[in-house]
């Protein structure tokens, strides 16, 4: 297992290139929190149950091959600021094939 | 004015367990919570989901943990102010505090324990013109079901696609004259039994479903008379007495943020080396709402913090008084309601 590189644009438009572990059962929401790229209390509010959309991200390139799952689809259908490329960070599991992923954190709900 | 020893703000697991630890020290508690029922996030967000890291429970449903905590604390007769938000705090000259809710209920206490979790749950409101008008003074828009009897023999429209929309539709189908459930998609997301029950009630004609659809406007001069619902691009008109959008809740630290407490990363800073007291003497913060070096937002950590908080309050209220920690197995539990729980005595008997 090796670290992968992910590019994250925060809510202020600043680009961060971060190293993400793939052996700690982490997801994109948790990665953002671990680097404190969004203010604590404004992201991952439900803890990762796809129940709040506070970790909504826009996927900017085609590295990610998986589609939204049912829970995610249901949550995003009721969230604000949703676009075609919206995903919930908590539902994107960090795996080696995500090396090079580029995302932008959506505005607060 | 409600008077108590410890006023707890937040009826989540940490706040509830604090009542038990306070009770062992003969301290009375009263709890304020913005939600209409106790349990906090566990009851509101994920009552049917399991938790695996409560010591001694290999697995427990969040809703069951709340039920158990309520059972565990009942002999200490906690008071509850539910469905109200703590808004202002005043420190009196004698060191006590007066906390007033947005709704005007006043509480006087010797110590304050903020166990507010992620903050006050505020409803996510649909972005509709004039909705502010109809949400006032019983004009027809409600974001919580506080008293189901209010809807007896009325026509109601519920909007939303999650557990609370499903569960309230089921419950109110036995109370209201008619229940219409409007959702943006054909798919609902909830516990399997809830989804199946709504399916069944729909077949029996007890719940009317309108999907995929959205409420886009209101009609009514004094109060709501009907809703405009958009379904597949067409408009339909639904007459109703109440509209209850259940789109989930977003937590906000809320008025507590203005109490002069030191706040860092949307959480209240406390002294974790001692007793979880804040920068204001007599005000404590326990559970997910506080922060300190190494903080972990776990229920089990909240239980520990609640316990130390209660000991500290006891020492503040009884300076110099001798006291040693007691074990419930040894001392039993004496409730304020006169009940006593104790270990069964072992027999002392010779064996021939």
Question: Could you explain how this protein is built, in words?
Answer:
The complex is a heterodimer of chains A (109) and B (352). Chain A is an alpha+beta fold and 109 residues long. Chain A has a single domain (4-105), classed as Ubiquitin-like (UB roll). Helix content of chain A is 13%, strand content 21%. Chain A has two helices and five strands. In chain A, strands 2-1-5-3-4 form a five-stranded mixed sheet, covered by helices on one side. Chain A is globular, with a radius of gyration of 12 Å. The model of chain A has no long low-confidence stretch (mean pLDDT 94). In chain B, 22% of the residues lie in helices and 28% in strands. In chain B, α6 links the parallel β11 (178-182) and β12. The longest helix of chain B is centred in the C-terminal third of the chain and has 19 residues, at 299-317. Chain B is built from eight helices and 23 strands. Chain B has two domains: 2-121 and 250-341, 3-Layer(bba) Sandwich (FAD/NAD(P)-binding domain), CATH 3.50.50; 125-247, FAD/NAD(P)-binding domain (3-Layer(bba) Sandwich), CATH 3.50.50. In chain B, strands 1, 2, 5, 6, 7, 8 and 20 form a seven-stranded mixed sheet that branches. A four-stranded parallel sheet of chain B has the order 12-11-10-16.
